[in-house]
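[Meeting: bench + compute handoff]

Bench side (C.D.) handed over the final construct sequence. Compute side (W.E.) agreed to return the predicted structure before the next meeting so the bench team could plan truncations. Sequence as handed over:
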Amino acid sequence: MKTIGIIGGLGPESTIDYYRLIIARYREQTGGRGYPHIVIVSLDVDKGIAMLDASQLEQLAEYLLGGIRQLANARADFALVAANSPHIVFDRLRETSPLPLISIVEATCEAVQRAGLKRVGLLGTRFTMSGRFYRDVFEKQEITLITPTEEEQARIHDKYINELLLGKFLPETRDYLQQVIVKMKDRDGLEGLVLAGTELPLILRGVAVTGLPVFDTTQIHVRVAVAKMLDDRPL
């Protein structure tokens, strides 16, 4: 069995979700009661958000690389960053990482492509919704990403930073997110929805979302990671 390395803490609630889902997926795939080998380096989400706010992308990449180096020193075989927004510097990380990395964006794009969809909504932080890093990957596969209006994005970002990252999952916030999704479906003709924030499934998982196929980026990332963990071929 390979050892998976996780850059967590971005934020803590979703890191816990990753840990639980990896164990559940591992047991499902192996049919046993054992536990996978996992190493977690937990970084400071506030420090990461501050770097994103200030567009300090070189500093963010170096901060994440420091964590990846710790994972390599702990003998992880490969790694993932358990968050969407930090993937804004994923290409820089991949160039210099001492470990193979699994991209949440590429894994999600492959899942949408397999579903045969060409027009999907994208929810996440402001950094994710307004950034190019999701669009660049999806456009190569001729998949159009639709985001909320600027006003909706601002409110979603505020809820994300000031509630979800702090482990506050309020019914009124869940209701607002569902309202935005319904508007996007009617307004933009969505075929599916990407929850491109690893805290979003914590407030929306299991909730009926207007009949749209929902792509939970956390679960997609976990499925790919566990498959790589159990693959006997060398990395």
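W.E. noted at the follow-up: The beta strands are 3-8, 37-42, 78-81, 101-102, 119-123, 144-146, 192-195, 214-216. C.D. will use this when planning the next construct.
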